Amino acid sequence: MEQVKRDYGPRGLAILAINMEEGRATVAAWVKQHQVTNTVLLDPAGAANRAYRVTGTPTVFVIGRDGTLVGKALSTKAWTGATGRALLQALLAR
After folding, report:
1. What digits encode the pLDDT tens for the residues 16-51?
2. In sequence order, which residues have a C-beta less than 8 Å from that of residue 1 and are 6 or more positions away?
3. Taking a C-beta distance cutoff of 8 angstroms, is the pair 5, 37 a contact?
């Protein structure tokens, strides 16, 4: 997702990660270790997981510029592969 942010962030793509049910110190250490630059939000009580019915990780929600849900992807995807890039480019062109 770091590469996706570098490639598409200047075109308006925003990436928000939501950590599931871990404390601030644990998340901060992981973010530092993995040099994550994307925004990471905390959900220590699991409220977002319940609200969005997250059943596994990673779960990706693609939200359009107008705030509507455009798509949902479960498990790891090749966002930097040809298909992933084509999808992101089409969404950003809207």
Report:
1. 899 988 999 999 999 999 999 999 999 999 999 899
2. 15, 17, 38, 79
3. yes
Instruction: Average the pLDDT over 48-75 and give the result.
Output: 87
- Amino acid letter, residue 51: A
The CA distance from 19 to 5, in Å, is: 18
Tell the residue number behind the tokens 């973010």, with chain if given: 31
Question: Span 59-73, mean pLDDT?
Answer: 86
Q: Which residues contact 4 (CB under 8 A, 6 or more apart)?
A: 13, 15, 79, 80, 84, 88
Distance CA 85, CA 32 (A): 27
Instruction: With a cut of 80, say whether residue 9 has pLDDT above it.
Output: yes
Query: How many beta carbons lie within 10 A of that of residue 19, not counting itself?
Result: 19
Q: H or E stretch including 91?
A: helix 82-93
